[in-house]
Write a structure and sequence with these properties.
The structure holds two protein chains of two kinds. By secondary structure, chain A is mainly alpha-helical. The chains are: A mainly alpha, B mainly alpha.
Chain lengths: 295, 367
C-alpha cells in the first residue's frame, strides 16, 4: 500500500471515527448522569435523519433549515423519551430502566417501519458537500473534511456548556451525587431533560452527517452505529465526553485500517467493535480516560 | 435504590409434607397434557400445530433464559447466540453428505463435517453439549463484569456469533445458510424438551445451588460474605441455560427447515426478554405462562397487520404493527407492572389443593 492510499484510508477512518464519537457523546452524557445505557440512542439518531429527510422532501425546506429543524425536533424527542419512559422508572432497580430502554429502542425502530416504511430511502447530499478533492493523488469527498470539523465544533460547544455554564455544573454535580444535588435546590429532572436534549441533538447532527456520507436511510440504520458508538464511549471511559470522541476516532480508524490492510477479513468488520469492547472490559473496565469503576 | 427482598415462599425450601402427593399430581398433569397433545396433533390444522410447536419451543428457551436472568439476576442478552450455535450444530449433523455437497456452492464444506451424519437425537445432544461448552468459555469472559455492562457484552457476543456465522463460508455456508433440513421436530420433541427443561430448572432452583443463585441475585456481596462462590453459581446457571437453549436451537432448525444468520439477530432475544418480563423475572411458572401467552398472542395479533374494512373506513395493511405493540407492552410493563404476572412466585400444588378443599367445604356448608 502506498502513501496515497494510506492517507486516503486515514481520512476515511477519521471521518467515520468522528461520527462514532459524536454519537458516543450522547451515550456518555446520559450514562454519566443516570448510569443508564440509553439503548434507544442509535434509534434517536435514525429519527433525526428521517426528520431531516421529510423536512426536505415534504416541506421542501432549504437543507440548512431542514437540518436545524431536524436537530431541534430530535432534541425534543429526547426529552419526550426521558419524560415518558425513563423518568417513571428512575427509582426502580437499574435493570428495569435498561429493559425500558431496550423497549423504547424497539418501539422507535418498529414505529419507524410502520410510519416511514422499511425500504431504503436515498438521502439528499447538498452541493456544498459533494465535491471530489484530489490532493497529491489522494481522492476524497470534501464531506470527509467537513465531518471532523463539524463534529469537533459540536464537541467544543458541548464541552463549553458542561464546563462553563450553570446547567453544565448541575450536570457534573448530578453525576457525582444526585440526591445531594437535589438538596442543593437544583431541579434535577430539568437538568436530566436538558442532558437528553443535548445528547439527542448531537446524535441527530451525527446521524445527518452519517446519512450524507452513506446516502441511504432506513428505520433500522441506527442499530449498528448506536452499538459501536456505545463501544466508543466505553473505550474512552464512560462519562467522559472528550474520551468518547477519542474512543470513536480509535474505533473508526481500527475498522477502516483493518479492512484496508486485510481485505479478506472485511466481513468481520462489525465484530471488531465488540472484540475491542470485550478486551477493554476484561483488562481495563474504566476505559482509557475513565476514573470510576463501573458499579 | 429499592431492593427486592425475597418473599416467604422463596426463603428456604418449605418443609413439604405433601411431597409424594405433589409428585404424583405433577406426573398426572404431564400425562393428561400428553394425551391432549396427542389429540391436538391429530385433529388440529397444521397451522395450529405449528403454533403449538412454537409454544413448546419458547417455553424451553424462556425457562432456561430465565434461569440466568431471573433466578440468578444476571441480566444478559445472549440467547440468540446460543440458539444459533445449537441450530447450526444440529443442522450440520443431520444433513446428509450429499445434501451438504449440494448446498455449499461457493466453497466446499471442511472435511470432518462433510462426511458426518448422525441421527436427530444425537445431533440435538451434540447441539446442547457444544452450546454448553461455548457458554462455559464465554462465561469466563462475561462474568468479569456486572450489571448493564454484562448486558452489553453478552449482546456483543450475540453479534459476534452472527458475524462469524456469516463469514465462515466453509462451515456455516455463510449468508446462504443451510437449506433442506428434514422436518423432524414434532410436538413430542418440543413439549418433551419443555417438560425436561422445566423439571431440571425447577429442581435446580429448589436445590441448595438454586438458593445460592437467588442469594447472588439479591445481594452479591452478602452472598460472597456467607461463603457462596458467586462466579461458580453464575457459571452453573449460564452453562445450564446454554445447554437447553442449544437443544432448543436444534429443534428450531428442524422445525423451520432453513436456517441462515439473519434468523438469529437480537430480535429473537428481544422476544424472549418480553416473555420473561411479562411472566415475572425469576418465576419459572411465569415464564411458561408468558411463553404461551406471547406466542399465541403474537399469532392472534396478526389481524392488526392485515387490511381492515369497517363500513366505509379502509385501513391498509400495516406490516410491523405487532412489534410496535410488543415493544410498547414491554415499556408499559416496566413502568406500571414491573413484577409481571407471577413476580417471583411459583406454581404450587398445595395452593391448588387448598383451593379445591376450600371449595368443597364451601359447597358442603351450603348443602
Amino acid at each position: 500500500m502506498d502513501l496515497a492510499q494510506f492517507s486516503q484510508q486515514l481520512i476515511n477512518g477519521i471521518s467515520l471515527g468522528s461520527l462514532y464519537g459524536i454519537i458516543a457523546i450522547g451515550y456518555t452524557m446520559v450514562y454519566g448522569i443516570l448510569r443508564l445505557i440509553n439503548f434507544a440512542h442509535g434509534d434517536v439518531m435514525m429519527m433525526g435523519c428521517f426528520f431531516a429527510y421529510y423536512g426536505i422532501l415534504m416541506f421542501s425546506l432549504p437543507w440548512q433549515f431542514s437540518f436545524i429543524i431536524a436537530i431541534a425536533l430530535t432534541a425534543i424527542l429526547g426529552i419526550i423519551i426521558d419524560r415518558g419512559a425513563y423518568r417513571p422508572v428512575r427509582k426502580a432497580p437499574r435493570i428495569s430502566a435498561l429493559i425500558t430502554a431496550i423497549g423504547v429502542s424497539f418501539l422507535l425502530e418498529n414505529a419507524g417501519i410502520v410510519v416511514f416504511g422499511g425500504r431504503q430511502k436515498a438521502f439528499f447530499r447538498p452541493e456544498m458537500f459533494d465535491h471530489i478533492i484530489t490532493f497529491h493523488g489522494v481522492r476524497f469527498l470534501n464531506l470527509a473534511i467537513y465531518v471532523p470539523i463539524i463534529t469537533l465544533t459540536l464537541l467544543g460547544i458541548i464541552l463549553l456548556i458542561i464546563y462553563r455554564t450553570k446547567v453544565g455544573r448541575a450536570m457534573r454535580c448530578i453525576s457525582h451525587d444526585m440526591e445531594t444535588t437535589r438538596l442543593m435546590g437544583v431541579d434535577v429532572n430539568r437538568v436530566i431533560a436538558i442532558t437528553f436534549a443535548m445528547g439527542s441533538a448531537a446524535a441527530a447532527a451525527g446521524g445527518i452527517l452519517w446519512a450524507m456520507k452513506y446516502p441511504q436511510i432506513n428505520p433500522l440504520m441506527g442499530i449498528i452505529p448506536g452499538l459501536k458508538a456505545f463501544v466508543a464511549a466505553v473505550l474512552g471511559g464512560i462519562g467522559n465526553v472528550g474520551g468518547a470522541m477519542i474512543g470513536g476516532l480509535i474505533l473508526g480508524l481500527a475498522e477502516i485500517l483493518l479492512v484496508a490492510f486485510r481485505p479478506d477479513l472485511s466481513g468481520y468488520r462489525d465484530a471488531i467493535a465488540f472484540g475491542i469492547l470485550i478486551i477493554i472490559l476484561l483488562f481495563r473496565p474504566t476505559g482509557l480516560f475513565g476514573e470510576k469503576l463501573p458499579e | 435504590m429499592e431492593k427486592n427482598y425475597p418473599n416467604n415462599n422463596e426463603v428456604g425450601a418449605r418443609l413439604d409434607i405433601h411431597h409424594r402427593r405433589n409428585q404424583i399430581l405433577s406426573l398426572l398433569a404431564i400425562g393428561v397434557g400428553f394425551v391432549l397433545l396427542y389429540f391436538a396433533q391429530k385433529y388440529l390444522s397444521s397451522y395450529q400445530v405449528r403454533i403449538l410447536n412454537n409454544c413448546g419451543l419458547f417455553i424451553t428457551l424462556a425457562v432456561s433464559y430465565n434461569l440466568i436472568n431471573g433466578v440468578t439476576g444476571q441480566f444478559s442478552l445472549e440467547p440468540n447466540a446460543f440458539v444459533a450455535i445449537g441450530a447450526y450444530t444440529s443442522a450440520l449433523l443431520t444433513l446428509t453428505p450429499a445434501e451438504k455437497a449440494l448446498s455449499f456452492i461457493i466453497e466446499p464444506i471442511i472435511w470432518p463435517l462433510s462426511v458426518i451424519q448422525t441421527p436427530f437425537l444425537v445431533s440435538l445432544l451434540a447441539a446442547g453439549v457444544v452450546t454448553a461448552i461455548c457458554g462455559f468459555c464465554m462465561g469466563f469472559a462475561v462474568f468479569r463484569v456486572r450489571g448493564d455492562y454484562l448486558a452489553i457484552v453478552t449482546l456483543g457476543f450475540g453479534e459476534v456469533v452472527r458475524v462469524i456465522a456469516n463469514n465462515t463460508q466453509t462451515i456455516t455456508n455463510g449468508p446462504l445458510g443451510l437449506k433442506g433440513l428434514e422436518n423432524y421436530t414434532t410436538v413430542w420433541w418440543t413439549w418433551g424438551l419443555a417438560i425436561i427443561t422445566i423439571f431440571y430448572v425447577s429442581r435446580l432452583v429448589r436445590s441448595s445451588y438454586g438458593m445460592a443463585m437467588k442469594a447472588v441475585k439479591y445481594d452479591e456481596a452478602a452472598a460472597e460474605a456467607v461463603g457462596i462462590n458467586a462466579f461458580r453459581h453464575k457459571m452453573l446457571a449460564f452453562t445450564s441455560s446454554a445447554f437447553f437453549e442449544g437443544i432448543g436451537g436444534g429443534l428450531l432448525a428442524h422445525l423451520i427447515t432453513t436456517i441462515s444468520p439473519t434468523l438469529f439477530t437480537f430480535f429473537l432475544t428481544f422476544n424472549l426478554l418480553i416473555i420473561i418480563v411479562v411472566g415475572g423475572l425469576g418465576s419459572t411458572t411465569g415464564a411458561i405462562i408468558a411463553a404461551i401467552l406471547v406466542t399465541w398472542g403474537g399469532e392472534f395479533l396478526r389481524f392488526v397487520e392485515e387490511p381492515i374494512n369497517i363500513f366505509f373506513i379502509h385501513i391498509p395493511a400495516i406490516p410491523g404493527m405487532r412489534m410496535v405493540i410488543f415493544s410498547l407492552l414491554l415499556v408499559l410493563m416496566m413502568i406500571f407492572a414491573r413484577h409481571g404476572i407471577m413476580g417471583t412466585r411459583e406454581f404450587n400444588w398445595n395452593w391448588v389443593v387448598d383451593k379445591v378443599n376450600g371449595l368443597k367445604i364451601l359447597s358442603r356448608n351450603r348443602g
